[in-house]
Design goal:
Distance between the termini: 69 Å
Largest sheet: 5 strands, mixed
Number of strands: 11
CATH topology of the largest domain: D-Maltodextrin-Binding Protein, domain 2
CATH architecture of the largest domain: 3-Layer(aba) Sandwich
CATH class of the largest domain: Alpha Beta
Number of domains: 3
Strand order of the largest sheet: 2-1-3-11-4
Order of helices and strands: EHEHEEEEEEHEHEEHHHH
Shape: globular
Radius of gyration: 26 Å
Structural class: alpha/beta
Number of helices: 8
CATH superfamily of the largest domain: Periplasmic binding protein-like II
Helix content: 25-40%
Strand content: 15-25%
Length: 244
């Protein structure tokens, strides 16, 4: 179990392009007694970061974060899916359309940085040289060394006037979610509640939809309601009818 001693901080990891500011603000309003520490990590390092307890929970890309290392026992929650886009030099032939298909880029050369923003997806042909970071790859795209496929938030993060990007239809999206290892951590559970929209006063059970009842359970509930209102044959109304 990962415990968080009194007087320490709750460490939230996040990967490039993911913006935890909204949730961090809510946390600081609700838990001024437990400081929130934001820790930047790469997708390829995020599973190891929680596994080695460098962070308590991480906002990362799933399942990409799990493609690099075995995190051991872990838990995940998917939050939203980002569109995959292709970054190209401004004025490139591919910018003539609003959206690209896999067939459009099948013969293109792609750069794959070592920090692997999309490790499970490889369109086109790979350039032999692998830049160290996505930022380095963006520089090479601007120099005409190849194209780059990334989640849309990364294209926005590294936006330059000499570059453009287009959505790549048919490509798998990048799912942003939470990854953590300790299911008994109250701070982690509280942060998950914030992300899911639980209010400060609601319990976990109040914020989540009730389980659907089967037909047998619904019938039993109806019978119980009738008995409580006296509308059963042996209830109060039945007794009144017999008196008449």
């Amino acid at each position: 179990m990962v415990s968080i001693p009194d007087g320490s901080s709750f460490r939230l990891g996040y990967v490039p392009g993911v913006t935890p500011a909204k949730w961090a603000k809510i946390w600081r309003e609700r838990r001024p007694d437990l400081p929130l520490e934001l820790v930047a990590v790469d997708v390829c390092d995020s599973a190891a970061a929680v596994g080695e307890h460098r962070v308590d929970i991480v906002l990362t890309r799933l399942p990409d974060a799990l493609a690099h290392t075995d995190p051991g026992p872990h838990h995940t929650i998917a939050l939203y899916t980002e569109t995959t886009v292709v970054v190209v030099p401004k004025g490139h032939l591919l910018t003539a359309v609003d959206e690209l298909t896999l067939a459009d880029v099948a013969d293109e050369q792609f750069l794959w940085p070592a920090d692997d923003p999309l490790p499970t997806f490889r369109p086109g042909a790979a350039v032999k040289h692998r830049p160290a970071t996505t930022g380095d790859a963006v520089e090479l795209v601007a120099a005409g060394a190849g194209l780059l496929a990334v989640p849309q938030s990364l294209a926005r993060l590294h936006h330059r006037r000499d570059l453009a990007y287009r959505p790549l239809t048919g490509a798998p999206g990048s799912t942003v979610g939470l990854l953590w290892t300790d299911p008994t951590s109250p701070p982690a559970d509280e942060f998950i509640g914030i992300v899911r929209g639980r209010s400060a006063t609601s319990s976990r059970s109040e914020s989540e939809p009730a389980a659907k009842r089967n037909a047998k359970q619904k019938l039993a509930a109806k019978r119980a309601a009738r008995a409580a209102s006296g509308n059963t044959p042996g209830g109060a109304s039945g007794q009144r009818r017999r008196r008449r």
